[in-house]
Amino acid sequence: MACTINVNLPESSYEIQIAPSTLDKLGEYMSKLELGRKVLIVSNPTVFELYGARVVNSLEANNYQVFTCILPDGESYKNLDSIKEIYDACIEHRLERSSTLVALGGGVIGDMTGFAAATYLRGINFIQAPTTLLAMVDSSIGGKTGVNHPKGKNLIGAFYQPKFVLIDPEVLQTLPEREFRAGMAEVIKYGVIWDAEFFAQMEASTHLDSIKTISPELLETIIKLSCQAKADVVGQDEREAGLRAILNYGHTIGHAVESLTGYTEVIHGEAVGIGMVAAGEMAAELGMWTKAETERQNHLIAKAGLLTHLPKINIDEIITAIQIDKKVRDGKVRFILPTQIGKVEITNEVPTDTIRSVLNNLQRM
């Protein structure tokens, strides 16, 4: 399993390298990019204990001067206080514009490291080394960086592309099963919004809910096709002027659920799964696709071990939360709704009564 996917952009194209045992080669890949010699690795204690030495050794073997910034683990730490810690480390070690931040971890670490790179000295180099399925197939690609605000998820951020993305699928063997399932929500998203054949491949699989039971061939397909889909969309619309918005499928309701449950009761991928169920039910209620297609999607989400019902959250609080989401346009909430498996539309014409009705039904399931 080895391949290279190109993210083609007008000013900041880069490669995604997917291959086993490649964490030990990060220094070699970086040498080809002709970056400065100072590198700050940003990670969390769990990931760094597992993989930090391999990355440090690879970098030092290629004559990089390596420093580390270890941040607490979890979405609740994805805030400006953590960004300040990264800045403090950059200043302490005198990083320059030619220096590089390496994000070694999941989506939280990647988002924060990218935002720090975008804003320190008005922009320094940034490399993604994702260690979760969700980060590999989604958040490490495309340059969306940022942190949460107490009133909403990812409200503070910047578009800032990495110089390189290194994906070593072998690290998924140490990923907790809950995190693997959360990543599968983003994978299923690509099938719904972009690739009906990919969706059908996942439907045909007996298991989708565990790294231990999913076939190696399907895992290879999942990572490659998901990364290619993300690269294709971002290559056509880097800053979400139009098409890229479809990548937010399931995220409008999902972000509200995630933030209202404190980022721990329901984690990001789980919330996206719930959001996709809600979006599918809205589309069916509005006559945009069939009830049979809704059931196909919901069955696949359930097969991945994800929630298909809404936890006990105040519906009014969800509706209030989505009103301050980044996806609001001219005061109207923008939803991504499916019209068939493999195709979605962007709309801001979903009546509040429809939203409320669907959410109420999902809470009773």
Please give a structural write-up:
The chain has a 7-stranded mixed β-sheet. Strands 7-8 form a two-stranded antiparallel ribbon. The relative contact order is 0.11. The mean pLDDT is 95. The protein folds into 2 domains: 3-174, Rossmann fold, CATH 3.40.50.1970; 177-364, Dehydroquinate synthase-like, alpha domain (Up-down Bundle). The chain is an alpha/beta fold. The protein has 13 helices and 13 strands. It is found in: Cytoplasm.
Radius of gyration: 20 Å
CATH class of the largest domain: Mainly Alpha
CA(first)-CA(last) distance: 40 Å
**Largest β sheet strand count, sense and barrel closure:** 7 strands, mixed
Supply the CATH superfamily name of the largest domain: Dehydroquinate synthase-like - alpha domain
- Nearest-integer average pLDDT: 95
Shape: globular
User: Count the strands?
Assistant: 13
Determine the fraction of residues in helical runs and give it as a percent range.
40-55%
Would you tell me which CATH topology of the largest domain applies? Dehydroquinate synthase-like, alpha domain
Order of the strands making up the biggest sheet: 1-2-9-6-5-3-4
What is the CATH-assigned architecture of the largest domain? Up-down Bundle
Query: Structural class from helices and strands?
Result: alpha/beta
Uncertain runs are none
SSE order, one letter for each helix or strand: EEHEHEHEHEHEEEHHHHHHHEEEEH
- The percent range for strand residues is 15-25%
Number of helices, counting only DSSP H or I runs of 4 residues or more = 13
When the domains are counted, the total is 2
